[in-house]
């Protein structure tokens, strides 16, 4: 289940991409299959090991094109172990809402991106997430849980403060929002029949990709898609460097 649109991220073969807070690697896998040089990063030991195993399996199965590379690193998103301006693309999917100091994480994203690079940030959308919080404390109030709910304008403003230029955005996973509302309503730890039935629907959709659910989600995503995705660019050095030259030219006139 992918949240990021790789075409909007402009991910190409040979592109160096960080998958931050990679979890069990779903976005890293697709980027690797597309020929990228993938570095998957997570703080969780089990997540790092699982992602490493699956990327290795993809390589052994020959599912990645020649030239694609991968690396899996345990790291803190607030202190990334990478040089300045060292990567072309960054994905940070469903992770910033877990980090108390999200400003530090966004600053690190801007630091490691090359000038002209792009990041895709995905977070739970405000409306669907607010309903989940209202229905259940157990949904978010736990170790490593969600510490905030983002409004779209706030997320874009924080990316701007970090030195990035927010651009296009969209929503995703509308079919997942009612699942979580149902789960929160009956109890996130309860094995309720209705929750199991809805989960089977989501698995069927994920595996089969039927036209009926794909069409439904395209219609419903703008209304209550569970995730918000924002793409932001790091300004090119040439644009920054050109400003003083323009000022000198203007002063000389």
Question: Tags for this entry?
Answer:
253 residues, alpha/beta, Rossmann fold, 7-stranded mixed β-sheet, 46% helix, globular, Methyltransferase domain-containing protein, SAM-dependent_MTases_sf, transferase, S-adenosylmethionine-dependent methyltransferase activity
What does this structure look like?
Keywords: Methyltransferase, Transferase. InterPro entries: Erg6_SMT_methyltransf, Methyltransf_11, SAM-dependent_MTases_sf. One of its GO terms (biological process) is methylation. Residues 18-120 form the Methyltransferase type domain. This protein is an alpha/beta fold and 253 residues long. It has one domain (6-237): Rossmann fold. 46% of the residues lie in helices and 20% in strands. The protein contains 10 helices and 7 strands. It has helices at residues 6-9, 26-33, 45-60, 102-112, 126-135, 152-161, 176-186, 193-208, 211-224, 237-252; strands spanning 16-20, 37-42, 69-74, 87-93, 113-124, 165-172, 227-233. A 7-stranded mixed beta sheet has the order 3-2-1-4-5-7-6, with helices on both faces. Mean pLDDT is 93; it is low at 238-253.
